[in-house]
Amino acid sequence: MNSLERRSVAALASVYAMRMLGLFMVMPVFVLLGDDLEGATPMLIGLAIGVYGLGQALLQIPFGMLSDRFGRKKMIYIGLVLFAMGSLLAASAESIYVVIAGRILQGAGAIASVLMALLSDLTREEQRTKAMATVGVSIGLSFSLSLVLGPLLGSAFGLAGIFYVTAALAVIAMVIVARLVPTPHQHTSSADTRPAREMLGIVLADPRLLRLDFGIFALHLVLTAVFLIFPTLLQDQLGLPASAHWWFYLTVLVTSFFAMIPFIVLGEKQRRMKPVLCGAIVMLALSTAAVGYISQALTFAWFVLFFFFMAFNLLEASLPSLVSKESPAAAKGTAMGVYSTAQFMGAFLGGSLGGMLLGQVGLEGVVWLMVSVLVVWFLVALTMPAPGHTASFVVQLRRQAPDGLDDIDESLRGLPGVQDVVILEGADTAYLKIDRRQFDAMRLADFPFVRPMNEI
Predict the structure, then answer these.
(1) How does pLDDT run across 145-202, given as a tens digit for each residue?
(2) How far apart are alpha carbons 353 and 357 in whole angstroms?
(3) Going by DSSP bridges, is the β-strand pair 390-396/429-435 parallel, antiparallel, or unpaired?
(4) What is the C-alpha separation between 412 and 450, in angstroms, rounded?
(5) CB 296: neighbour CB atoms within 10 A?
(6) CB 344 within 8 A of CB 53
């Protein structure tokens, strides 16, 4: 990356991380601190935790499309203002209903798709995968940090303090966008990173992608639901005060992260991703079921959460990679848009359904919900063919007459390792879906219609 790209990626990744940090920090403490709110019930507490996901799921793609018309930065500012307003509303609340309204406003600032589009505007095609990976790492770090900062801030400043910090993070994010993120003169987003209406039907009809979408839906449903019951178990049954929860989560997250790395390597390098994926789902289901048997042993609770997050981190890291590999050529942006919608809908239903069951049935009802969803996911994953090991490859073309594109398509498909080709007529760009072990990019130099890198 050049210096402009590095600055743009670092700034946008930090904006994304701050926003996700603000959304996640309440998860490990809300069930403990929300009881003091007027009108609080288990169902409404669950709704308050997960309702942000509804706005995120419904507004991601509309925000992205509006940014094409009105500008990326303008929509990012609007989203961050909504996020800050929601945070301030929740911070000033004495009623659970006002907190729910604040969380809905937070979720309405659905700028993830706009941030990705702006990232695409500001990076070259050959650097885009690296840029997206940087954003992915920032999201993972923000989630881990939220489980540590949430209990610390909650014990020091209460629930209102967390929401005030969240509002401050939104303001800082706006300053970063204004001062550090360049303004592109025109939108140059590639079709491979932006949702496209014409690709939606193809993505929704792909059974491989639908299985992965259900997977992220189930994963975030379970993640949201587990925080309805685990903080209470730590405090009430195990005697661990809320102010000490941060070190419990910190030790679990650090050790589980390193524990899952060998399985990522096994799945990717040895091409055994399907058994690794199914094994992680089984581990997640068993650790979730074990939550219902935590009694007086803090060590047992630590190992339950260790195996839970070992499986969670493995699945959270693997699923986006699989979506990218299984996406049709030039449809990665659309596939990731549907995937993100499924993720946030899972968070919404995990909080709302989990809260309802907690109020009506108790802890056992939430555990049964989580285990049932994971069993269904395991059966869905078993029917999935072994994931492919493909990657996207972008080829810049010399300008061609439309009637010559069919010949180019046929020539590119004839290369070893090329599985799919999509050519964008107006952009002089071809998107290839390739198997890296068979594909040799040097052979592209033999084709007169391919632009050499020094001409791009």
Answers:
(1) 999 999 999 999 999 999 999 999 999 999 999 998 887 755 445 555 555 566 677 7
(2) 6
(3) antiparallel
(4) 10
(5) 9
(6) yes
Task: Tell me the C-alpha distance between 160 and 36, whole Å.
Answer: 12
Q: Which residue has the tokens 């190992």?
A: 303
Q: In what order do the strands lie in the sheet with 418-424?
A: 390-396, 429-435, 418-424
- Whole-model pTM? 0.83
SS3 label, residue 271: coil
Question: Residue 265 contacts by C-beta under 8 Å, 6 or more apart in sequence?
Answer: none
Matching residue, tokens 């992915």 = 136
Instruction: Report helix angle 42-50 to 207-232, nearest 10.
Output: 130
- Name the residue among 75, 78, 100 with its Cα closest to residue 90: 100
The rounded mean pLDDT for the chain is: 85
pLDDT tens digits along 62-84:
887 788 778 889 999 999 999 99
| Residue 58, Cβ density class (10 Å: 0-12 exposed, 13-18 middle, ≥19 buried) | middle
Structural domains of the chain sorted by starting position, each given as residue range(s) with its CATH number in brackets: 3-382 (1.20.1250.20), 391-455 (3.30.70.100)
Tokens of 235: 């405090």
Q: Which residues contact 405 (CB under 8 A, 6 or more apart)?
A: 423, 425
E strand map for 271-331 = none
DSSP assignments along 201-251, one per residue: HHHHT-HHHHHHHHHHHHHHHHHHHHHHHHHHIIIIIS---GGGHHHHHHH
Which one-letter amino acid corresponds to residue 214?
F
439: left (phi over 0), alpha (psi -120 to 50) or beta: beta
Q: Under a CB-based contact definition with an 8 Å cutoff, are residues 36 and 29 in contact?
A: no
> How far apart are the C-alpha atoms of 288 and 373, rounded to whole Å?
11
Joined tokens for residue 103:
């969380």
Digit-coded pLDDT (tens) for 22-64: 888 999 999 999 888 999 899 999 999 999 999 888 888 788 7
DSSP tag of 367: H
What integer pLDDT is reported at residue 193 of this predicted model?
52
Helix count and strand count (H, E) for the chain: 16, 3
